[in-house]
């Protein structure tokens, strides 16, 4: 009530007279959607922006990524952010259910901004510089996880069921599109200055943080509960050990091309599985479980999360393979210098992003009207078709055919992402939305980390069968002594794979100035030129690509089947616990 006796508007005045929209204002839901979408976008951009900027980062901190001792730095820069995100999003979503989703979300925006500043100020070089970046990336991932874990729950709280698919569609499309946009943005910014890939977060983070603290309100159901410490610890340690073991399995060990017999890898994988099994047992015994396993009794929730995991594995594997294909082979063969390939790889991958952005919001809107299940399954089937088309392309492809296929892949991802999220979030009661949002993000992020181990392992296995002979034959044909050529051919293929992934030509480094100096000038020039290395590895790379894409096809079709799962009574979801709203129509 105001001083003159009139009712006070829901848009209250504060901060020097600026209007503040309260949670019951009709426009509040759009404020919640826009801010959480910004938070999700900036968090997911940073999961991939480093991916394509690694050559510039390693040059900037003066670290040779091809030295065997530096492979661990490379792996942790690749997977550290995604691993931490996969491990923490459930816990942070559950904390949002207990203490308030807005509190956790807002703190995440602030932490993300502060860590971005620290990353851009790396004062060291060499291994110390790499450790600075890895440590602060882990801290940044904590902030990003706080954003991702609660954004879908905040939106579900703010929107009525009839608009929920559209709203979640915008948010999820922004999230997944962020992983594509990061590739382009990283290529552009790294061309200027490697620190700029972290600077870009700072003004966005400051605006988003102030906006979040001013505008967002907790409108969800909050249930006081104790923190499930044993569940949190066993889940975090178990999932970290399992995913790290799988990732380290791609490194050579004991004369083998990969490290699956490494005791540390086996310990991580077996110990991780044991701890996760213990975690599941704990969650069935505690009163306030971090990970409410009873939600998986809902077949729609279980199927939607299975589709999320499998779809994320396929999408993550595609990103890695396309970057290797473009930076290591196609761009050098078409006249691009190796130092320019990250920028141009990002530009040539634009159709992937455009396809996703074109389909995502529309699929979310249409799924509210016609049901989500058909859209989700159709998108995953189309994704399998796009993988089949990529499989048919030659290594030195015609770009327009490649562009059409990655556009189709992006389009199919957009068709599937928002409807699948709507299926998951509408299948849970209101008081569990934070945990459910965290679970969905966990499966999505774990899929990205798993894709590193799975697809790199398959690619290394494919290379191991044909690359040694190809290397030996190609080098001796240019006059390299047989002993030197055979020594290079015997090196683990993962080094060659990382060279292609980073857009490096390793031939000059592998041969060394002494061997190159003994060769005719024309031969030395050919060996260190743009075309020799990509021509050399294109055949073995395609052998590995066949295995990788066939697996991606199978994964996509299984994910499509999972997204079609219905509950026992054919209904999609449980009743909404808030406001008497009925669940969103999802098929």
From TrEMBL:
GO MF entries: transmembrane transporter activity
UniProt cross-references to Pfam families, sorted A to Z: MFS_1
Segments forming domain Major facilitator superfamily (MFS) profile: 32-507
Segments traversing the membrane: 38-61, 73-92, 104-121, 133-155, 167-190, 196-213, 233-251, 263-282, 303-326, 346-367, 374-393, 399-418, 446-467, 544-565
Entries under InterPro entries matching the protein: MFS (IPR011701), MFS_dom (IPR020846), MFS_trans_sf (IPR036259)
Localization in the cell: Cell membrane
Keyword tags: Membrane, Transmembrane, Transmembrane helix, Transport
Signal peptide: none
Main location: membrane
One cellular component (GO) term of this entry: plasma membrane
Domain of life: Bacteria
UniProt-listed SUPFAM superfamilies: MFS general substrate transporter
Membrane topology: Multi-pass membrane protein
Protein name: MFS transporter
Species per Swiss-Prot/TrEMBL record: Planotetraspora mira
């Amino acid at each position: 009530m105001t001083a003159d006796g009139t009712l006070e508007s829901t848009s209250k005045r504060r901060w020097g007279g600026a209007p503040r929209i309260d949670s019951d204002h009709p426009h509040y839901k759009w404020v919640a959607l826009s801010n959480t979408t910004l938070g999700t976008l900036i968090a997911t951009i940073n999961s991939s922006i480093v991916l394509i900027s690694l050559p510039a980062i390693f040059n900037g901190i003066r670290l040779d990524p091809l030295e065997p001792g530096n492979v661990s730095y490379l792996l942790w820069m690749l997977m550290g952010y995604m691993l931490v995100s996969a491990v923490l999003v459930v816990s942070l979503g559950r904390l949002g259910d207990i203490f308030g989703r807005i509190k956790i979300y807002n703190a995440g925006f602030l932490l993300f901004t502060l860590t971005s500043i620290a990353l851009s100020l790396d004062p060291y070089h060499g291994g110390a510089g790499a450790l600075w970046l890895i440590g602060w990336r882990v801290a940044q991932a904590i902030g990003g996880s706080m954003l991702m874990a609660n954004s879908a729950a905040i939106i579900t709280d703010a929107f009525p069921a009839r608009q929920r698919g559209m709203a979640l569609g915008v948010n999820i499309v922004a999230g997944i599109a962020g992983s594509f946009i990061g590739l382009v943005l990283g290529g552009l910014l790294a061309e200027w200055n490697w620190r700029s890939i972290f600077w870009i977060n700072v003004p966005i983070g400051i605006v988003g943080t102030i906006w979040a603290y001013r505008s967002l309100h907790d409108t969800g159901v909050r249930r006081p509960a104790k923190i499930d410490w044993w569940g949190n610890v066993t889940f975090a340690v178990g999932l970290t050990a399992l995913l790290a073991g799988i990732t380290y399995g791609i490194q050579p060990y004991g004369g083998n091309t990969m490290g699956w017999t490494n005791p540390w890898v086996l310990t991580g994988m077996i110990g991780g599985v044991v701890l996760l099994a213990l975690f599941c047992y704990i969650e069935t015994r505690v009163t306030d479980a971090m990970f409410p396993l009873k939600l998986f009794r809902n077949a729609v929730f279980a199927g939607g999360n299975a589709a999320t995991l499998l779809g994320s594995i396929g999408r993550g594997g595609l990103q890695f393979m396309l970057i290797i294909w473009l930076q290591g082979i196609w761009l050098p063969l078409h006249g691009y210098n190796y130092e320019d390939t990250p920028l141009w790889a990002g530009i040539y991958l634009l159709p992937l992003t455009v396809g996703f952005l074109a389909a995502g919001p529309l699929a979310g809107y249409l799924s509210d009207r016609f049901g989500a299940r058909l859209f989700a399954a159709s998108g995953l089937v189309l994704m399998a078709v796009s993988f089949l088309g990529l499989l048919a392309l030659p290594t030195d492809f015609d770009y327009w055919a490649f562009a059409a296929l990655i556009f189709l892949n992006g389009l199919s991802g957009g068709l599937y992402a928002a409807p699948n999220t709507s299926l998951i979030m509408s299948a849970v009661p209101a008081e569990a939305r934070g945990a459910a949002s965290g679970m969905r993000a966990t499966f999505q992020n774990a899929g990205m980390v798993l894709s590193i181990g799975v697809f790199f392992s398959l690619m290394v296995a494919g290379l191991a069968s044909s690359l040694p002979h190809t290397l030996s034959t190609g080098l001796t044909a240019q006059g390299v002594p047989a002993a030197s050529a055979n020594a290079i051919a015997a090196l683990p293929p993962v080094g060659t794979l990382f060279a292609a992934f980073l857009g490096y030509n390793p031939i000059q480094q592998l041969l060394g100035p002494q061997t190159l100096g003994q060769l005719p000038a024309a031969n030395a020039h050919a060996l260190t030129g743009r075309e020799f290395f990509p021509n050399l590895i294109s055949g073995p790379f395609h052998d590995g690509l066949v295995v990788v894409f066939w697996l991606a096809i199978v994964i996509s079709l299984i994910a499509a089947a999972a997204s079609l799962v219905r509950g026992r009574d054919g209904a999609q979801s449980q009743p909404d616990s808030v406001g008497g709203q009925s669940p969103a129509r999802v098929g």
